[in-house]
């Protein structure tokens, strides 16, 4: 058993941390709240780090592990960097590589060289609106909020047909009335969330057959692990900001960090962070080394991450007192992230259902 | 990173599992220690020792195997899996023995260590007093030097297993009370010495696993001092660090392991209404995930220690989290039992969840309360300022963190 990062991974994390700090997502997060037309970043700083292709085949410059990407995700989460890592480097790349068809590879390469902005969309939870492909090759239905949806040029969706599910790509930049993009003012702009409605949108099939569902599930679980890793980073940073303030702010002639009510709250947040780190690493390791456990560990990490980030963001605001509740302070940006992330790629409650059903051998709909 | 067993570890696990399987009957005869199964449990420990399953990390010269902490983890996991009771000599093996290895004389090492491992002699920790729990440096038991040794006077309390122990490590005052932790010395106390009276205290579980210990003019030879005179705090710290590691980080689950919980939930589900079913599944999953996190955080710590680190204040993370988890799991387990949960367990003590629920508060308190754990983590790991000390006595202000929180 060696349950720790390698020296290379630690070094990679440091380099990534510096790159994200330089182009901190905090500025975008704040800017987009005031100016909803601020263009959503999709290229830097990920491209300069060479992490977009990390999970791609070696022939495309990849060959890294999910754990490598988790190390980067923790850093991107720390700086509230927008969502490309989860949605593209994690999910789309894993999915398109697994599908492996010429159509999938073409789209993958277009995404990697920056020609297209590819995102992955899930069906809405409402069964009446679920995504369907009709016999003429057009898509109908509504998506759940899509990560990076505001900037996407192409969406990959799992659509139902009479003969089973197929994975298709839909171009969403055309002015066709068959595609409607709804992007109301977001709670946390860094996720780039938008909802799509398809009324007979033209689609081309990337892959069909028995293997598409396992490929889809694996890619989604990898994305969940990365989302949990970003939450870990955000929680770590929130804890650090709270700690730093507790050391400088004085009250009653004492540093507030010497009051147990404050100190103990910071410790509880820290314990959560450490426990989450264990679960995120376990899940990433399983994605690479023990794929049959990925679903269970990814759901565990994701459910736990939702709670941990929530508590850390709450503690961050609380520790700061009134100033923590102002628009000027960064605390609310972490709070926004916490509120939004716990609803992405399935709610914490649905992840707990997955954990329960896998352990108990129950057939539960998530 | 590779979380799975290495080839050597995996071979080791197979050997351990096989040994437990072949010798299981003598090990699972009883779930936990009580006054009337001490001999059985001592025998079980000697059997385990003969299989190399006790003190695997101890140096070979003291009867150990010079093995790794990961091997100890594997042994704990396999014992847990077999639902074997905890070693009766766990305090000796986990706390007192390591203190003797670190602080003891050559004579003490050769006299005591092997018998600790074989279960021949059982040890206990004589630290807490009615007036000194969290504030351990307030110890008032006095050790007075005599011509050829020491005389001990005072009272200890909450001492786990003292009534079946042969020896204890006592903390006593050899300096003035104002010296706080700098005026303490650790002693090896022969529990059969004249003047030692042990009175079992009944716990809320209904069992009596801890005791009051009265020390009335107990004469100790000069070689009963463990470590240096006046350096008892260093011995106490070694034991407390190990205690937190043994309680929170070594893979033991105290009956809160996911396995038992899963089978209880499976049994209860058919009887539940649709709405309580959802609540139970959510709570079950939350407990299961938290238990997984506790186990994995412990494994991370063990992995770090196995690469050359010491068990440090991080052990407190596990103790804190596990204490909270045990209460949550016990409460869920009981609620799943429906009506039977509200009646006292059968005389044979077979109600597992009642045992877990009734034991849970004790696990949180033993070895340092949650508040004390949070002070340790807050001050040692997060670097937050220490609590201001009472300034009534000038000596107190010069003793920065003189409490059980391990200064
Ligand atoms: C099951 C069990 C087994 C035990 N086994 C042993 C044993 O083998 N040997 C042994 O020597 N002792 C043993 N103990 C004793 C144990 O270490 C003490 O009970 C524990 O350290 C707390 O001390 P106390 O009981 O005096 O409580 P107190 O210290 O009086 O604490 C009372 C309350 O005040 C809080 N408090 C105290 N100080 C502070 C502070 N600075 N900040 C905030 N809150 C504070 C505590 O957290 C607690 O909630 C055992 C206890 C239990 C429950």
TrEMBL record, chain A:
<dbReference type="InterPro" id="IPR036250">
    <property type="entry name" value="AcylCo_DH-like_C"/>
</dbReference>
<comment type="similarity">
    <text>Belongs to the acyl-CoA dehydrogenase family.</text>
</comment>
<feature type="domain" description="Acyl-CoA dehydrogenase/oxidase C-terminal">
    <location>
        <begin position="226"/>
        <end position="356"/>
    </location>
</feature>
<dbReference type="InterPro" id="IPR037069">
    <property type="entry name" value="AcylCoA_DH/ox_N_sf"/>
</dbReference>
<keyword id="KW-0560">Oxidoreductase</keyword>
<dbReference type="InterPro" id="IPR009100">
    <property type="entry name" value="AcylCoA_DH/oxidase_NM_dom_sf"/>
</dbReference>
<dbReference type="Pfam" id="PF00441">
    <property type="entry name" value="Acyl-CoA_dh_1"/>
</dbReference>
<keyword id="KW-0274">FAD</keyword>
<dbReference type="InterPro" id="IPR009075">
    <property type="entry name" value="AcylCo_DH/oxidase_C"/>
</dbReference>
<protein>
    <recommendedName>
        <fullName>Acyl-CoA dehydrogenase/oxidase C-terminal domain-containing protein</fullName>
    </recommendedName>
</protein>
<keyword id="KW-0285">Flavoprotein</keyword>
From TrEMBL, chain B:
<dbReference type="InterPro" id="IPR037069">
    <property type="entry name" value="AcylCoA_DH/ox_N_sf"/>
</dbReference>
<dbReference type="InterPro" id="IPR013786">
    <property type="entry name" value="AcylCoA_DH/ox_N"/>
</dbReference>
<dbReference type="Pfam" id="PF00441">
    <property type="entry name" value="Acyl-CoA_dh_1"/>
</dbReference>
<dbReference type="InterPro" id="IPR009100">
    <property type="entry name" value="AcylCoA_DH/oxidase_NM_dom_sf"/>
</dbReference>
<keyword id="KW-0285">Flavoprotein</keyword>
<feature type="domain" description="Acyl-CoA oxidase/dehydrogenase middle">
    <location>
        <begin position="124"/>
        <end position="218"/>
    </location>
</feature>
<keyword id="KW-0274">FAD</keyword>
<dbReference type="InterPro" id="IPR036250">
    <property type="entry name" value="AcylCo_DH-like_C"/>
</dbReference>
<feature type="compositionally biased region" description="Low complexity">
    <location>
        <begin position="391"/>
        <end position="407"/>
    </location>
</feature>
<dbReference type="Pfam" id="PF02770">
    <property type="entry name" value="Acyl-CoA_dh_M"/>
</dbReference>
<dbReference type="InterPro" id="IPR006091">
    <property type="entry name" value="Acyl-CoA_Oxase/DH_mid-dom"/>
</dbReference>
<keyword id="KW-0560">Oxidoreductase</keyword>
<dbReference type="InterPro" id="IPR009075">
    <property type="entry name" value="AcylCo_DH/oxidase_C"/>
</dbReference>
<dbReference type="Pfam" id="PF02771">
    <property type="entry name" value="Acyl-CoA_dh_N"/>
</dbReference>
<feature type="region of interest" description="Disordered">
    <location>
        <begin position="387"/>
        <end position="407"/>
    </location>
</feature>
<feature type="domain" description="Acyl-CoA dehydrogenase/oxidase C-terminal">
    <location>
        <begin position="230"/>
        <end position="382"/>
    </location>
</feature>
<comment type="similarity">
    <text>Belongs to the acyl-CoA dehydrogenase family.</text>
</comment>
<dbReference type="InterPro" id="IPR046373">
    <property type="entry name" value="Acyl-CoA_Oxase/DH_mid-dom_sf"/>
</dbReference>
<protein>
    <submittedName>
        <fullName>Acyl-CoA dehydrogenase family protein</fullName>
    </submittedName>
</protein>
<feature type="domain" description="Acyl-CoA dehydrogenase/oxidase N-terminal">
    <location>
        <begin position="6"/>
        <end position="120"/>
    </location>
</feature>
<dbReference type="InterPro" id="IPR052161">
    <property type="entry name" value="Mycobact_Acyl-CoA_DH"/>
</dbReference>
